[in-house]
Amino acid sequence: MTAHLGPAGEGAARVEIPGQLLERARTATRVCILSGAGMSAESGIPTFRDVQVGLWERFDPMELATPEAWRADPEQAWAWYAWRASLVSGAQPNAGHLALARWQQRDGVELTIVTQNVDDLHERAGAQVLAHLHGSLYALRCSECEAPSGAAYPQVDEPVAHLDPPACEECGGAVRPGVVWFGEALPEGAFYDAVEAAQQAELVLVVGTSGLVHPAATLPYLAAAAGAHVVEINPRESEVSETAHEVWRATAAQALPALVDALG
User: Is position 134 annotated as part of the catalytic site?
Assistant: First the structure.
């Protein structure tokens, strides 16, 4: 059921598009993109663990990204997220992000983007995102009253150990990052929208995700069960590979521009 393609070439012109994908992309009126960390890797954004440099090397990121870590030391947690936000702000959307924005603007197709990434590279490329399943670095809110905040991260040119989080404009509580921490539920509305988009799509592209993080990992299965043609775009094998009808061993920045260019 799964068609495995070899490694793609270095340039978009040399990338071989899997057998059924191009025709299905040409005829599908509802397309859903499920993007993960691999989508942003080619923009130079380090993975969750790779961000541990300098003074952060002694910390496990899974221990910093928890409600308990925030309650124990909000100044430390805020400093870590300010550092991550500075890395994201210095990155630029890659060719894969830009290709999806072009595809989304084509007449006759409804293309929805569901991402596990907390960065804003899809939006900066000009695309609209239906759901940020794990929240957004920039959707800051109060840690006490949950009110949205207009505050911003300070510019951090190098890691620092502690920074004071801004105060909530409504109640004075500490403003926290707008991400989903370990132990927290996904935004209910975002996950509902993602399930609906995956199940209603004719074509689903799973781009750069390991398929290990639940419940986001269930979306390719739900899409396939609902009748969608599921294609994995990932240079490495993942938990998604056996679910997909086709597997394209290429990166987002290689595959997506080649596909969108081929649509004409």
Answer: yes
